[in-house]
Amino acid sequence: MGLNERRKIKELQDTTLPARVLEIQEICGKPIPYEVDWDSFGNDGEALNYLDNLSCHRLNMALRMICMDEMGKEAVRDGIRLVRLKNVVDKSGMSLTFADGVLEMTCAYALRTDGMHSDGVIRELLLKNL
User: Is residue 94 classed as helix, strand or coil in its secondary structure?
Assistant: First the structure.
C-alpha cells in the first residue's frame, strides 16, 4: 500500500467515517459504527476514493427514507448495530447482506456507480429484515 492510499485511509478513518456515524445518529438517534476491511482495498486508490459516496452516502439516503417516522427510527436503532464494508475487484464478488444486526456491503468501489448497491436496494433489504 502506497503513501497516497495510506493517507486516504487515514482521512477516511479520522474524518469521513466519524462524520458519517454522526449523520446516522442524527437520522435515527443512535450512532452505528463502520468496520472496514482495509486490506481488501490493497493499493486501489480509486476504490478508496469512492468508498464514502458508494456506501456511506447510499446507506444514509436509505436510512433517511426508513427513519421518516418514530417507528422507523426505533427499528433502525434496535436492529442495526454495525455496518461492514469490503472491496472486491469486479461485480461478480459484490454482495449485500443483513443478519444479526450487521449490514455487510461488499462493493467493487473502483467501478464507481457500476460497483455499488443503490440506496433503494439497501432500503428494501433493511425494510424486509428490521
Answer: coil
* Structure confidence by residue, pLDDT tens digits, 32-75: 999 999 999 988 999 999 999 999 999 999 999 999 999 999 99
Query: What's the CA gap between 74 and 66, in Å, rounded?
Result: 10
Phi, psi of 117, deg, nearest 5: -100, 130
| Cα radius of gyration (the chain) | 14
Report the distance separating Cα 36 and Cα 83, nearest Å: 8
CA-CA distance, 31 to 38, in Å (whole number)? 21
Q: Which residues are bridge partners to 97 per DSSP?
A: 104
3-state secondary structure at position 34? strand
- Centre a 10 Å sphere on the Cβ of residue 66 and count the other Cβ atoms it contains: 21
**Could you tell me what percentage of the chain is helix, strand and coil, using 3-state DSSP and rounding each to the nearest 5?**
65, 15, 20
